[in-house]
Amino acid sequence: MLSRRIPHDLAPNAWARLLEQRRAAGEPLLDLTETNPTRVGLGGAGPDELAALARAESACYEPDARGSATARAAVAGYYRERGTPVDPGRIVLTASTSESYAHVFRLLADPGGTFLVPSPSYPLFEPLAALEGVALRPYRLAYDGDWHLDLDSLERAFGPDVRGVIVVQPNHPTGSCLDEAERSALAGLCERHGAAVVADEVFGDFARSGRPAPLPGFTGEERVPTFVLSGLSKVCGMPQMKLGWMVVGGPEPARTEALRGLEWIADLFLSVATPVQVALPHLLGARHAFQWRVRERVAANLARLERLVAARPELGVLRAQGGWAAVLRVPLTMTEEQWALDLLRQGVVVHPGHFYDFAGGGHLVVSLIPEPRTFDEALGRIEEFTAGA
């Protein structure tokens, strides 16, 4: 009865089954996979932000497919403060980054069209692409003490069916960023093959250095059609507000054509609620305090993780430039799956690296935003387990 876009086998894997069993039994768990800021005392929506949703203007419904002029001006102000000014006319609001991806897939590709995706990276791309009837093909991010774009891998991935290249800047969970030469090379390949750049920059405000300066991205790229994605979930720590955006760049007339197409798609859904659009200037204004708290939390938890690695030389932490996650290198004495299952039996929840398409084994992925007590206790159990493994 269901379409082929819906997975027919929804049975959980061994890790998910064990996690469900332990939760159902009420066993306490130290969750190092938690990336929802509202669950770890970091949410950005306080009383003032919630009050902004109740303004009188929210009672009037005057839909604009791209988003209200006031809301788009607020997003443009955010980029101006970051030193990358954009025209509000190039901004399209969505309900989330996931919806932005769906709109871009619909805009650029017929069924069967292909997008290139980094590996390792988000496990979200595959189901989103399947729902829109498009295909994915990976290109490699390589690690040799630092992360690099494997340009040969990217070049080999191109073909006549490729409609766009997805780049996550900084990537999740690797925390890696393309440098200026890599960004230029990627854009050049897209220009040569007639493909667009789809740049997910939701973690772009979270440099690992702790400095408030934003990480470099693709805003301002004019050689090829470019779609820069972000939103309130990570920028302000407000995933419950359900507002994201796209900044459309590139040469004319392709840019105007893309904006016209996105407006038509967005008009079919009109998914962004009026109250959050009305409140957006106030919500974005609250981001500085939230981001400061996150940077402080990430720095403290990362320092604790590095102390663990110093004490256990068989472990390691892969270098990163930004984001909220860390990749822990573990001995190949067992599979990543077995590491994650055995740690779960010790009450510690981590992700095995293969969830994110890490190659070669020996990687675990942890979030750096859990509350410090939880993080410290979990790392203590990891240290104990490693000593006996």
What this model shows, in words?
With 389 residues, the protein is an alpha/beta fold. It has 2 domains: 14-43 and 288-388, Alpha-Beta Complex (Aspartate Aminotransferase, domain 1); 49-285, Aspartate Aminotransferase, domain 2, CATH 3.40.640. The protein contains 13 helices and 14 strands. Strands 2-9-8-7-6-3-4-5 form an 8-stranded mixed beta sheet, with helices on both faces. A 4-stranded antiparallel beta sheet has the order 10-11-14-13. A two-stranded parallel ribbon has the order 1-12. Helix 3 packs parallel to helix 10 (274-285), helix 4 (97-108) packs across helix 9 and helix 11 (287-311) runs parallel beside helix 13 (372-388). The mean pLDDT is 96.
Beta-strand segment tally: 14
Mean pLDDT: 96
- CATH class category label of the largest domain: Alpha Beta
Largest sheet: 8 strands, mixed
